């Protein structure tokens, strides 16, 4: 679509034929195609509504600042352990494509290579091999970090809301996974668990109540100390959004930790949120991946910035909505065609409408998760009461 250089993007719906299908999940199209009627899918597309999606550009430049390559991504970028597993799977798929014949088998290969890296710990020294710069501020990496993931959407590895479930924690504090499992099964929210002493950055942000700005220039011109600048970008207070021009960055401690995150027994560590991100790879080659495309990258600077125009996606309408969202999009199109509003006004209203619908969808998702936890708690309570 980008290569066509269209003046206006056509709305795009996603048929989930991949392994994780995170972008399809975020737009309501499910985690995989299981031979549903194509007629039925086309009917759902006809009732879908417009949703905007930030597009991001990755520039790879050498130490002299010369740009060597440029790539685009929509979902996420990973450096370290998650990219290492993706790289191993990619190499095997290229050499033996017949070994990849179903979504389940594909996930098994990811698990096997993840287990291999758990033993090798190929990125155990990652904090000394890369630097993370968010909105012009260098963000310290946890000493035990073996991977960082830069998120545009809050769906990772097959639907895990890795930012929403993440924690802002002291990296030196202990973590009891058995206690975490108990919290999960008893229906308590694990979004703020485990309890941690607030970092200096969080305390400064809470006291000064900085408002988030629209460019890194605003931050660099503020008369702030280095500690205050770090506190600003590491506050991690905003919910994840795929259309606010902000990237969410988390750290993971290895493949075993990633496995625990996938099954709800662990949490990624929130590092920061930023509008522009640079990752400096110092000497040793490290694994990098964007949207499942992995490679091994030597010394360079990875600079991430948002592209000018968002992608125009189609979000599946919830059954209970009655198609109200789609009618709103049609109304805006009609108003522009009749010259009641200009294209700029149309785009502005569409962006605001998309943002508000995304917020409502996020609230429904959280409520659904809370209802699931409550049901689990009641079921466990009833079972315990039956034995008394």
Structure description:
The protein has 388 residues and is α+β, with helices and mostly antiparallel strands. It has helices spanning 22-26, 38-46, 81-95, 103-120, 126-129, 177-185, 200-208, 216-221, 226-233, 255-262, 324-337, 343-387, and strands spanning 49-53, 56-61, 67-73, 76-80, 130-134, 137-139, 147-151, 247-252, 269-274, 277-281, 286-290, 293-297, 300-306, 311-315. The protein has a six-stranded antiparallel sheet. Strand 5 (130-134) and strand 6 form a beta hairpin. Helix 3 crosses helix 4.
Weakly predicted, low-confidence segments: 171-217
The total of beta strands comes to 14
Q: Share of helix among residues? A: 25-40%
Order of helices and strands: HHEEEEHHHEEEHHHHEHEEEEEEHH
Euclidean distance between termini CA atoms:
62 Å
The average pLDDT is 79
Strand content: 15-25%
Instruction: Describe the global form.
Output: globular
The number of helical runs is 12
User: What value does the Rg take, in angstroms?
Assistant: 22 Å
Oligomer class:
single chain
> Main beta sheet, described?
6 strands, antiparallel
**Class derived from helix and strand content:** alpha+beta
| Widest sheet, order of strands | 3-2-13-10-5-6
């Amino acid at each position: 679509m980008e290569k066509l250089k269209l003046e206006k993007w056509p709305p795009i719906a996603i048929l989930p034929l991949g392994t994780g299908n995170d972008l399809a999940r975020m737009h309501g199209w499910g985690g995989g195609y299981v031979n549903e009627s194509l007629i039925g899918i086309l009917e759902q597309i006809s009732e879908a509504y417009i949703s905007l999606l930030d597009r991001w550009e990755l520039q790879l430049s050498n130490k002299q600042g010369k740009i060597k390559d440029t790539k685009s991504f929509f979902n996420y970028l990973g450096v370290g352990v998650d990219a290492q597993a993706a790289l191993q799977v990619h190499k095997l798929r290229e050499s033996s494509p017949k070994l990849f014949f179903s979504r389940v088998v594909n996930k098994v290969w990811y698990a096997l290579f993840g287990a291999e890296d758990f033993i090798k710990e190929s990125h155990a020294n990652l904090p000394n091999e890369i630097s993370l710069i968010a909105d012009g501020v260098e963000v310290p990496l946890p000493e035990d970090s073996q991977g960082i993931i830069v998120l545009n959407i809050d769906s990772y590895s097959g639907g895990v809301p890795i930012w929403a479930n993440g924690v802002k924690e002291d990296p030196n504090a202990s973590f009891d996974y058995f206690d975490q499992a108990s919290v999960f099964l008893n229906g308590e929210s694990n979004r703020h668990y485990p309890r941690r002493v607030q970092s200096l950055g969080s305390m400064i942000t809470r006291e000064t109540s900085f408002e988030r700005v629209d460019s890194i220039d605003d931050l660099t011109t503020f008369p702030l100390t280095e500690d205050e600048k770090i506190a600003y970008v590491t506050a991690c207070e905003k919910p994840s959004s795929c259309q606010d021009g902000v990237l969410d960055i988390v750290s993971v401690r290895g493949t075993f930790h990633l496995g625990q995150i996938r099954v709800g027994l662990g949490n990624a560590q929130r590092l920061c949120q930023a509008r522009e991100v640079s990752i400096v790879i110092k000497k040793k080659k490290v694994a990098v991946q964007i949207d499942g495309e992995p490679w091994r990258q030597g010394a360079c600077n990875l600079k991430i910035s948002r592209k000018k125009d968002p992608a125009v996606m189609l979000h599946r309408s919830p059954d209970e909505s009655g198609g109200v969202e789609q009618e709103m999009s049609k109304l805006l199109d009609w108003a522009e065609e009749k010259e009641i509003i200009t294209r700029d006004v149309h785009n502005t209203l569409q962006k605001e409408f998309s943002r508000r619908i995304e917020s409502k969808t996020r609230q429904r998702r959280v409520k659904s998760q809370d209802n699931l936890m409550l049901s689990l708690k009641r079921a466990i309570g009833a079972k315990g009461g039956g034995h008394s």
